[in-house]
Amino acid sequence: MTDAEKLTMLKVDLGISVEAYDTRLSQYIQVAKQEIGREGITLSEEDLDDNNLVIMYAAYMWRKRESGDGMPRMLRYALNNRLFKEKMEE
């Protein structure tokens, strides 16, 4: 999945239809990839679950800027499960 496709999916998730936020949302996608990498996860651009994880993380960061809420459990579980899967395959 390309970053442009991820951007489209993120905008759908957030309910944003205008292009005014595209640059900022694209940055959130890049930061999400970096943050996930810091967790020890190696992402694959072809894996749908990995792409969904990036979108979920970017959406969390976007929402957190207003609410200040901590990371949702479902996202933490998804990150943990993805990391465990990677470690089991080594």
Helix and strand succession? HHHH
Find the count of extended strands (DSSP E, 2+ residues).
0
Q: Please state the CA-atom Rg, rounded to the nearest Å.
A: 13 Å
What is the count of distinct domains? 1
Ordered list of secondary-structure elements with their pairings:
Layout: H1 3-14, H2 22-38, H3 48-67, H4 73-89
Helix pairs in contact: 1-2, 1-3, 2-3, 3-4
Q: Main attributes?
A:
90 residues, mainly alpha, 73% helix, globular
Word description of this protein:
73% of the residues lie in helices and 0% in strands. With 90 residues, it is mostly helical. The protein has one domain (3-89). Helix 1 (3-14) packs across helix 2 (22-38) and helix 3 runs antiparallel to helix 4 (73-89). The two termini are 24 Å apart. The mean pLDDT is 94.
